[in-house]
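INPUT
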Amino acid sequence: MLIISALNYAQSHQILKKSFEVDKNTSVVLNFENIYVAIEESTDGKIHFDYAMEFEGYSKKAIQEKLKEITAEVSNFDNGITLMAKSKNQITFARFELKTDHGLYIEDDLFSLKKDSIIRKAKDSLLAEIRYNNRLDWSKSPLKYINGRFKKMDKDGNLSNIRKGNVDILRSKFLIKVPPFVKLNINAVNAGLYFRNDMQNELSASIKKGTLKTKGLLNAYNVLRVDNANFEAESISGGTYNFKNVKNGKIGSTQEVNIDSEFSKIEIGEINKSTTITDFNSEYWFYNWAHFFDRFNLYSEYTKIHFFYPDRNHSLKVVGNNTKNLFGNGESEINMQPTRKGEKYTMMTREPHPGETLSGRIFFDIIHGIIYSHNDSIKTINKN
Amino acid sequence: MKKDIRDLFKEEEELKILPKKHRAEFLDKLRKNSKKKSNTFFRLGIVAVAIIALTVGFNIFYSEPVEEISPMIAQIEAVEAEYLADIETEWENFITIADDEILISRFKRRLEELDNDYQDIAVLFKNDSNNIAVVESLIENLQTRLQLLKDIQEHIKILNQNNEQHENTI
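OUTPUT
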């Protein structure tokens, strides 16, 4: 009984705990590799680093080996703070290490390719998805999560559920609190960054592989480069975003942003004022439009667009060539054919309804594109 | 397992990569692998005995240890081989239907970048083969490459569909 109790006891280890006074001129550089971290706002003018790990099922030796793999150091020199946090192996917020005696069977679901959504999502609905994903609750039921993906397999190929004794659990609790007035320079490789508050900080961030999940990113000088990673944000307001192979991209709303993207899949809940997208071979979902979105520009090649029309009075101009516009479920289409030399021409125009307040102007410059048009308001707004 | 892209277009809803009998095939492969190792070991033994017989006075028995490959690694290797074969097939199909050199070169570069990422994840997997997050990353990388190629072929197919309509203004 005593042995069982001792084995089940989760051990905590403090990796890093430091705080520093900062001012608006402090240079803060945060480097992450293979480590997940939550970032929140601090209200006392200090930056706080608090990194602890909790081991469940690990032997003392295994814990020591795991701790040796991790480096978490912070230096403070000449009003500059630099964090280096890395692990030899990837450590998510909850890390599951399987210790089956023979092998694992990977559920087919893990291999199935997801079908595209063609249903208009309300902004609130997309926000709910983003908020749900930017949380840690799932780690409280790790066995459910694991058994949804894997099964234990014995030497004869028989499958059974993975039980608590088959898996060691490591919980990584890394929290950084930063005041809103400091600029953050972030370099993350195969890491997970979870911003838990609206971030007014100026951000210069490079995210390669891994994940960035955040509430609002609200700074006109933000520069973010996201490469081969997951990106979810409740809102992005101001700044420049470079998305390359962003998977499951979800953005609640965009405002005054420039997005340069390629090979990505991005859903946008609501397009607000002055958004410009330049793209190559991505797939976008434009679900909703703000009452006054002012101007929206899309410059693209080989892009697939799920275009849900604004409910309010707007104008639309589409230039380019070799593009298909499919309506509804593909029941009808407009074929904007290629020109011999590939020069662009005006493929579609619609003027706003005179006498009504203009919600905004939509401009597409699109080559080799496919536009799936949904909820076309032309029939309702322009009818007289 | 190679697939004909034309069949895939016909059966779009059935996009699962692994056949149902995947597990059984995997177990067969495992058994065959372990038989191969036994034979190798046996042959090494014969060679070693012959050496002993020829070198009287040296009572040394030499045999190389046979490294057991973990079932998890074997399974991932099988999955990887299958995906890579499919990716190669889809690549061949893609360059057959694409007539835009810039498009092909951009895809080539993107796939190379993803392959480099895969090599990085493979190093993590080598050190940490029971970490679920790493296994998922490996599979996701392969899926991403395959999906990219399937998507662009579907895109080109839609663009190339004949249509007599040509409208400038709506």
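end of record. Chain A touches chain B through 56 residues (CB under 8 Å).
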